[in-house]
Amino acid sequence: MKVASIVPRLLGGLVVLWLVSVLTFALIHLVPGDPAQVFAGDAATPERVEEIRAQLGLDQPLLVQYGTWLGRVLQGDLGVSLFTGEPVVDAVLRAAPATLSITLLALIIAVGIGVPAGVIAGLRQGTWIDRVVSMLATVGIAMPGFWVGMLLVLVFALANPWLPATGYAPLSDGVGTWFEHAILPATALGLATGAELARHARGCVTDVLSRPYIRTARARGCGPFWLIRKHVLRNAAIPVVTVLGLQAGRLLGGSIVIELVAGVQGLGTLTINSILQRDFPILQGYVLFAAAIVVVANLTVDAMYGWLNPKVRTA
Amino acid sequence: MRNGAMRNGAMRNGAMRNGTDPLLEVEGLTIDFDGAVSQPGLVQDVSFTVSRGESVALIGESGCGKTMTAMAVLGLLPAGFRVAAGRIALGGRDLLTCSARELRAIRGRSIGAIFQDPMSSLDPTMRVGDQIAEARRLHLKERRPVALRRARELLDRVGIPNADKRLASYPHELSGGMQQRVMIASAIACDPELVLADEPTTALDVTIQAEILELLRDLRTEQGIAVLLVTHDLGVVADFCDRVVAMYAGAVVERAGVEDIFGAPAHPYTRALLDAIPQSGRPRTVLPVIPGRVPPAGSFPTGCRFEPRCDHGGHDRCRAPQHEAAVADGRYSRCARVADGDLVLAAGVGAR
Amino acid sequence: MTAEATAEPVVDRRPAPSERSPRRKLLRGMIRRPSSLVAIVFVLVLVVLAVLAPWVAPQDPTAQDLAAAFAPYSAEHLLGTDDLGRDVASRLLYAIRIALLAPLISVGVALVLGVPSGLWAGLRRGYVDAVLSRITDALLSLPGLAFALAIVAVVGPGLVNVMVALGIVFMPSVFRVVRGAAMAVAQEPYVDSARAIGCSTHRILWVHILPNVAAPLLVQATILMGVALLAEAGLSFLGLGVQPPESSWGSMLRTAYDNQFEAPLSVLPPGIAVVLTVLAFNVIGDTIRDVMAARWQR
């Protein structure tokens, strides 16, 4: 991909992040009533309320507040937790590895199972394999990931002592230990995405197979194997990749509930607690971080798209 | 459905062509559709031959079964369609008894194919050079660099300038005319005996159409490639073809040499097609149009399939099933009235 | 073969397709397919059960009986009892109301926000379109659930709050569908001719644009019903949605999760209820799309 086509995408990503920053900042001011009072809680003394007002700069004009806030954010300062006093960045970075590694494993599972299943179903359109895959995918999309997680824990951890029921082990404990802890939540998380990808991949393959250039290739004497490798997969990969970006957001969102089920102290747990405790700086940190991850994921997808699609590559 | 008269016709057709060497023989080809609704006789009892080096046109409106017939020759009927009866032979070899593997060895090797709308018929993700080289790699087991070298020569051959650079282009970087040249290059990559051209110029500008036809003509004269041209454009036919096979509603209505058919058509449908050609040099009057449309498969009339739209219909003989009958040496018509001498159609292009 | 048809001077236009009302046709297409027929019947049964819950439910869903906590499946308690001895079957039955109403709130909010803005952006284009599209792009690139959580953090937990928040999250997808459809219809020649013969903008909108936007919108809305139910289950599971003593399938799953050592199988009934209902919404949505696609083709 040429540099010229990367720049507008990068700029687009920055615009999105900027809009998210505005939304995130607005969060505090959308709270009904006096934000300082809300943060401090109903039982707080007036002194405490004023202290918080000063701490958050809530006594300044809005635009000034946003400027100061954004300036700090750009320097990597997202403030401190209203509860523990821990810097938000530290809290987010502490919780991020668990969430991200589970999400990434979920993505690998989803792509590794969903895409091949969908491709095979598309190639064998109308056969029993196609029907089974389509049915499983339809059901898979309808299942709440956290419920699947509970069922998996029930079967693989409680009924049979094969895997740990809860908790998370960082990669530094060894890949095997990490995998044992991560596989159940990752499977539960990846299921819906895998099902979605299977459906999409099936549709894309079916569509490609109906294209005139496939007929041309067959008229040239291509056998099934050559046809799939050289023509079908290359063309079907383009639309399949584009939906991966949307799935990044979905996986991050889904991980919030699944972390609770799996007892993982990740970003999801951090966020839920921040909501229940009205710890807005932490929540802001999470929203910004999640948006940044999704923007990066979309940029990666754009790059892959450009690499796969000659029309973009050479345009 | 095959009766004595037609069998007789097919045999005499073979005898008539003595001295020429039949390359493609299609006899009594009948195609059924077995899908949600079963539709027998989508293509019914189609017979024709293409001799080596000859150019034959398959003409008719859309929905007449021309493309279906061409696809049957390639062994690439869409899912649900099936050859129910008849014989297709290439150089004496029966294609209908070939295995899938044997058919693949013939497609792209002995029969090249060119399709309408080159933009969508070329793989958008594959370089032009690789698409031309593909057939050589598959059939001649050439390694990629060797096949690409040959692809370069083929690009020269089909008149694409700057072949070295174009080899690495993607289809969307080329104009429609260039894309069709690439299609032709890929169709002739393995020096086939027969090229099947399905509406090769329909999607192109008029000026480009002429260039592409010129190229096809050169390939015929220089390499002796036979061409089966599927088209609805009679203008193209007059320029390019030796013989014409006209189809209507899944059946062949007339077969004749190109001069014969333009001079004196032997079927009302062919007559009507000729009338619908816009004529240069004549005042622009309203173009005659054949009223009505091709009946959808499954609701063909039991008698003459063209009768409901025919200027000369309504006759008793039109209500009986029509059979292909010889009306002159090497000419066949599926109109009972013409065959009996009851109906004489106006001669000449544009006559009415 | 389409290009061929347009190039031929001899072909007459096909006659206009049969003049049966598209709504009747859609309904027929849906009832003819066994899977969507089952889905439709399932949803209708849910609606009936939701309305009739007080008469159909075997027990009071809130009646506690601590002595009978975690009772197994029996004739008295068809699906057993929960940690407080409440009848699971009755609670499941009453929760249908929330399972149907909660998604309706979200989808309703999404439609109210998304349809006018989508129409405006799609028909007027210009800077309004540019700004709205940018904003919805930004919203779409947020993890949906995180965005909803942020809103919930502002307005506080509670079923209605959560569902309204989800509606805002769904707004971009409705906006996109409506904008795309409106743009496509606006380019059709018949809209130009309607304008040419002096139809008011208002009339063009109601007579020409909306009916054509309705089909893809209906598909999107049905699919969103399922997504909303899944999200409601998740958020109620987290304790942010429905508040006790009310219960939804999601909060019942939370109860089951909290007691998974005592009554491991209690995760099944509410979970299966969610899966079947979402499945029914999705099947209906898919079928509408398929039937519409088949209609558009011919």
From TrEMBL, chain A:
Keywords: Cell membrane, Membrane, Transmembrane, Transmembrane helix, Transport. Pfam families: BPD_transp_1, BPD_transp_1_N. The keyword Iron does not apply. InterPro entries: BPD_transp_1_N, MetI-like, MetI-like_sf. The chain crosses the membrane at residues 102-123, 135-159, 251-273, 285-308. PROSITE patterns: ABC_TM1. It comes from the Bacteria. Residues 96-305 form the ABC transmembrane type-1 domain. It is a multi-pass membrane protein. It is found in: Cell membrane. CDD domains: TM_PBP2. The keyword Membrane applies. Its main location: membrane. PANTHER family: DIPEPTIDE TRANSPORT SYSTEM PERMEASE PROTEIN DPPB-RELATED. Belongs to the binding-protein-dependent transport system permease family. This is ABC transporter permease. It comes from Pseudonocardia zijingensis.
From TrEMBL, chain C:
It is found in: Cell membrane. Its main location: membrane. Keywords: Cell membrane, Membrane, Transmembrane, Transmembrane helix, Transport. Residues 10-21 have a biased composition (Basic and acidic residues). It is a multi-pass membrane protein. It holds the Pfam family BPD_transp_1. It comes from the Bacteria. The chain crosses the membrane at residues 37-57, 94-123, 135-156, 162-185, 205-231, 267-288. Gene3D superfamilies: MetI-like (1.10.3720.10). Residues 96-285 form the ABC transmembrane type-1 domain. Residues 1-22 are annotated as: Disordered. CDD domains: TM_PBP2 (cd06261). The keyword Endoplasmic reticulum does not apply. Belongs to the binding-protein-dependent transport system permease family. PANTHER family: OLIGOPEPTIDE TRANSPORT SYSTEM PERMEASE PROTEIN APPC, PEPTIDE ABC TRANSPORTER PERMEASE PROTEIN. This is ABC transporter permease. It comes from Pseudonocardia zijingensis.
